């Protein structure tokens, strides 16, 4: 694990999202990190020192002096840390950090820190969208800090929009990526990798569509891993709720198969590796209703026409690209995957079977087999992040031949 043995200083400010910090501390500890927590005075309205100290196995500090008069040195805290994570970071704490308003232990520690600083903002919808917040986040990035953007969802006010603190798993992943990025061999440096991800939605009328259960998790994991290895990554995604943590990835959002095809071939001539992990709808309605179809009849007949085969087209137009396809099968899995490898002119194909528990759509895990024209490799059930490593390791081994 990337954070194993690292010293993580978590600074908690006074927002309702502070409850999530318990899970973040637990996750860092489980991965072998040492965690020290400091909190602002207002944070004590939302979390207790006892719960945070129990999880972190260290005393939690909120003031410069303990009740017995012992000085809590902000300088020592700052110098101790390998990274500082401010989560949640309220609008008030963000403003104090950026403009040097040093009136509590958290800000004094932050201003003494020489380590990387990660900021996970959390505030209500309009506060997050306010020009002053946007400006402060831009300034934070200009200072070299790493922003873990707020996510969309229901907020404490009842409004729905961007402002929720990123989930602990996302913050953990960003910190892990930071350490990985500074240690991992840049084995794909100088390569351009194009990845398709997620489903496509084919419109029936303005409110309905034909689609599938693909979440995009596998494609997004591949994109993150390729970026860590130094590749220039172009990610073309159908509708997906997945969030990228690496800002170097060039993300293009599409909806339909035809849109995905057009976007792929904007870049195809310039790429070195193409990985088609998207679950593209095979068929689309022949005619799309301009108005919502009313529920008048007992039956509704929709004529479907075949969508363009994006992967087959990539294979037909392949010149120098190393092309990877995916096959999700329910029967005759290996035979069907090998047939697809041949028919679509692929260099390798990744097979997952819906018969394997934990594999396929929506899961955080996957179990794969990889085929080339001459090789077969089987892998155990793993997280999709680890599966992405296996796939890219195999791609790299083929490129070296």
UniProtKB/TrEMBL annotation:
UniProt xrefs under InterPro entries: CoaB-like_sf, CoaBC, DNA/pantothenate-metab_flavo_C, Flavin_trans-like, Flavoprotein
Keyword Cytoplasm: no
Pathway it works in: Cofactor biosynthesis; coenzyme A biosynthesis; CoA from (R)-pantothenate: step 2/5; Cofactor biosynthesis; coenzyme A biosynthesis; CoA from (R)-pantothenate: step 3/5
Entry EC number(s): 4.1.1.36, 6.3.2.5
Cofactor(s) in the UniProt record: Mg(2+); FMN
GO cellular component annotations of the record: phosphopantothenoylcysteine decarboxylase complex
Cofactor binding comment, as recorded: Binds 1 FMN per subunit.
One Pfam family linked to the record: Flavoprotein
GO biological process, one term: pantothenate catabolic process
Binding positions for CTP per the UniProt entry: 282, 292, 308-311, 326, 340, 344
Keywords annotated in UniProt: Decarboxylase, Flavoprotein, FMN, Ligase, Lyase, Magnesium, Metal-binding, Multifunctional enzyme
Domain DNA/pantothenate metabolism flavoprotein C-terminal: 188-396
Catalytic activity from the UniProt record: (R)-4'-phosphopantothenate + L-cysteine + CTP = N-[(R)-4-phosphopantothenoyl]-L-cysteine + CMP + diphosphate + H(+); N-[(R)-4-phosphopantothenoyl]-L-cysteine + H(+) = (R)-4'-phosphopantetheine + CO2
Domain Flavoprotein: 6-175
GO molecular function: FMN binding; metal ion binding; phosphopantothenate--cysteine ligase activity; phosphopantothenoylcysteine decarboxylase activity
Chain spans, region Phosphopantothenoylcysteine decarboxylase: 1-192
Source superkingdom: Bacteria
Function: Catalyzes two steps in the biosynthesis of coenzyme A. In the first step cysteine is conjugated to 4'-phosphopantothenate to form 4-phosphopantothenoylcysteine, in the latter compound is decarboxylated to form 4'-phosphopantotheine. Catalyzes two sequential steps in the biosynthesis of coenzyme A. In the first step cysteine is conjugated to 4'-phosphopantothenate to form 4-phosphopantothenoylcysteine. In the second step the latter compound is decarboxylated to form 4'-phosphopantotheine.
Protein family according to the UniProt entry: In the C-terminal section; belongs to the PPC synthetase family.
Descriptive protein name: Coenzyme A biosynthesis bifunctional protein CoaBC
Organism: Chryseobacterium bernardetii
